[in-house]
Design goal:
CATH architecture of the largest domain in chain A: Orthogonal Bundle
Largest sheet of chain A: 3 strands, antiparallel
Radius of gyration of chain B: 18 Å
Shape of chain B: globular
Distance between the termini of chain B: 38 Å
Number of strands of chain A: 3
Largest sheet of chain B: 6 strands, mixed
Largest interface: A-B, 29 and 30 residues
Oligomer: heterodimer
Protein name (chain A): Metal ABC transporter permease
Subcellular location (chain A): Cell membrane
Helix content of chain B: 25-40%
Membrane topology (chain A): Multi-pass membrane protein
Strand order of the largest sheet of chain A: 1-3-2
CATH superfamily of the largest domain in chain A: ABC transporter involved in vitamin B12 uptake, BtuC
InterPro entries (chain A): ABC_BtuC-like, ABC_TroCD
Number of helices of chain B: 11
Family (chain A): Belongs to the ABC-3 integral membrane protein family.
Shape of chain A: elongated
Number of strands of chain B: 10
Bound molecules: adenosine-5'-triphosphate, magnesium ion
């Protein structure tokens, strides 16, 4: 099946449509919330929470004996929240840095989760297989009701975001200042964190414990490259997340059923790579181009300055001078003379140049301009 | 002197770990003064301001603003944090940061409207940053960022201003611009508490001073207490001799 066949099938094939919609919505909510995690410099938070959720799945299975997705994910949610409280507790009650706390909780919970999984696997019970799908996720198991829940959570999350937009923004930028204004930052913070945990738990079935944090971070990191406005960043991250979900699912479905979660994450990573290179404001490519342009521009202006100093010794500023006298000035070339003529700073005649009025004014303003830019 | 006390701090003790950073501080600041807090690095100047503003919970002590607890007087107080305390790469504009100064009076959920925007633009104008209003904040120089923080506090339209090193890293022109704004505020009857590092300019800029080094060394009018004795007690060296070297 080729990609275009796949997109045709999308209109007729119920299962494909469900899975694609599910991964798209998941990508969108992760992108939205991931923006907040990235801006709080808590990139590891998602990783810690998703790993912390693993023992929850195992314990939920051990207690209920059921493999029902919702029961297992409820276990994951509870365990993820406990992990978050521990992280919060460790950072406020001890002198450990937050990344240390995150790392601790991550490895502790994940280790415990793996231990439980191996224990479950050793049980003489035919029912136990398949829990390990939560490690890397299995998008194919998504059903319509899962997607409805995702859409519901995304909707509620969107309403909360719109409602508390101003509070989220100010807290992300300046926590201490927000406190002095009388806002309850614990409440705002808990609200964001709760939705991050919820989004992660929703993603476990599709993307899995190990790669979930990439779902959260990659769209946000890519979006940050393209904009300097928080609102645009959040919207863009949601769009990039959704696109990663859609194309990831398409690619995995058409290429011998490659595992969906990792492919989605790879597509998101391609978005990040592309953004880091090609974004006009912060991308590596345009920064290099701008740097060269600036350098060339400065070179021209330096030459102009030199000409100005010569020209202003004459009554008539447009008095022609030999090109030869520029020879002992660094940075001058035939090419730069031509460019200056294009800008109408000078006119060239034979082996002589003369400054125009425009060029004279430009040179005179060079210093003033620098002052103005300050 | 004005009878009314703007700020009164009683037996304030603060510790981050086991070691106290502020020890048993009593401080009374009369209304309408322009006060400098001076002391060496790590003396607890920022901590003192943060404790008064409720950002840090003290181990002991009480604080009142115009005779009432801080919680009830929030709207009378504005804060200019140390510039380095935030990430200036945050995706937002200068105007947007200044608008944040209006969030406190707006309260929860309500968004800033035309009135708030007008106030923010006026504050930008006052600090000479109006032409930078749409500039992404990471593309501002250090001195310009400092002015943006000042403008954000100005829109709060408070009675007491706490400023943590507003002159840090600014050039002479900006320093003069800022001190003129502070003096104007004092003329309008506001109280200003400013953490300041340049001892040379204290007598010129301020009329009140507090010496701090974990303990409060002295507090009072500059002309009475800004002397070698207190400087030596605070900085632990004979200040004048050290400077003259
Ligand atoms: N978050 C913190 N956790 C632990 N210790 C802290 C913390 N913040 C400050 N300290 C310590 O408290 C003491 C006082 O710090 P504070 O920032 O109040 O000093 P300061 O007088 O403002 O210094 P500076 O002139 O360098 O700004 C210092 O010894 C500092 O190391
Ligand atoms: Mg300080």
């Amino acid at each position: 099946m080729s990609i275009s066949e796949y997109f045709n099938l999308l209109w007729t094939d119920y299962t494909l449509r469900t899975i694609t919609l599910g991964t798209a919505v998941l990508g969108a909510i992760c992108g939205m919330l991931g923006s907040f995690a990235v801006l709080r410099k808590q990139s590891l938070l998602g990783d810690a929470i998703s790993h912390a959720a693993l023992p929850g799945i195992a314990i939920a299975f051990l207690i209920t004996g059921s493999k029902d997705t919702y029961i297992l994910l409820l276990g994951a949610l509870i365990c993820g929240l406990i992990g978050t409280f521990w992280i919060r507790g460790i950072t406020t009650k001890t002198h450990l840095k937050s990344d240390t706390a995150l790392g601790l909780v991550l490895s502790l919970f994940f280790g415990f989760g793996m231990l439980l999984l191996t224990y479950i696997q050793k049980q003489p019970n035919a029912n136990q297989a398949g829990l390990d799908k939560y490690l890397f996720g299995q998008a194919a198991t998504l059903v319509e009701s899962d997607v409805f829940i995702m859409i519901g959570v995304t909707g509620v999350c969107l309403i909360i975001l719109l409602l508390f937009w101003k509070e989220f923004k100010i807290m992300l930028f300046d926590m201490d200042y927000t406190k002095t204004l009388g806002f309850n930052v614990r409440f705002i913070d808990s609200l964001i964190t709760f939705f991050i945990v919820l989004a992660i738990v929703l993603g476990l079935q599709t993307v899995g414990v190990v790669l979930m944090s990439a779902m959260l971070l990659a769209p946000a990191a890519a979006a940050r490259q393209w904009t300097n406005s928080l609102g645009t960043m959040v919207i863009l991250a949601a769009i990039i997340g959704a696109l990663a979900g859609i194309f990831g699912t398409a690619i995995s479905a058409t290429q011998n059923n490659l595992s969906t979660g990792p492919v989605i994450v790879l597509v998101a990573a391609v978005f990040v790579l592309f953004s880091f290179i090609f974004s006009p404001g912060r991308g590596i490519l345009f920064r290099e181009i701008r740097f060269r342009q600036n350098r060339n521009d400065l070179q021209l202006k330096k030459t102009l300055q030199f000409m100005y100093d010569i020209a202003k010794t004459h009554q008539n500023i447009s008095h022609p001078h030999a090109i030869r006298i520029l020879n002992n000035f660094q940075g001058f070339s035939k090419n730069s003379l031509r460019k200056m003529e294009e800008k109408e700073w000078i006119t060239l005649k034979g082996q002589e140049w003369s400054l125009t009025n425009i060029g004279f004014e430009e040179a005179k303003n060079l210093y003033n301009q620098q002052l103005k830019d300050e | 002197m004005n009878e009314k006390l703007a700020i009164s701090v009683d037996d304030l003790t603060v510790a981050y770990n086991y070691k106290p950073v502020l020890w048993d501080i009593d401080l009374e600041v009369p209304e309408g003064v322009l006060m400098a807090i001076v002391g060496p690095n790590g003396a607890g100047k920022s901590t003192l301001i943060k404790s008064i503003l409720g950002i840090i919970k003290p181990i002991a002590g009480s604080i009142s603003i115009f005779g009432k607890p801080y919680d009830k007087q929030r709207k009378l107080v504005a804060y200019v944090p140390q510039k380095g305390s935030v990430d200036w790469d945050f995706p937002t504009t200068a105007l947007d940061v200044v608008l944040m100064g209006t969030y406190g009076s707006l309260g929860w959920i309500k968004r800033p409207g035309q009135k708030e925007k007008k106030a923010a633009l006026e504050a930008l104008e006052k600090v000479g940053m109006l032409s930078f209003k749409s500039r992404q904040i990471s593309q501002l120089s250090g001195g310009q960022q400092q002015r943006i923080f000042l403008a954000r506090a100005l829109v709060q339209n408070a009675s007491i201003y706490f400023m943590d090193e507003p002159f840090q890293g600014v050039d002479a022109t900006t320093e003069i611009a800022i001190i003129n704004i502070l003096k104007e505020l004092r003329k309008a009857g506001k109280t200003l508490v400013v953490v300041h590092h340049d001892l040379q300019t204290v007598p010129e800029y301020f009329d009140w001073v507090t010496f701090l080094n974990v303990k409060k060394i002295a507090t009072g009018p500059v002309k009475d207490i800004f002397n070698d004795d207190n400087l030596t007690k605070t900085y632990g060296i004979n200040y004048k001799v050290a400077v003259n070297k």
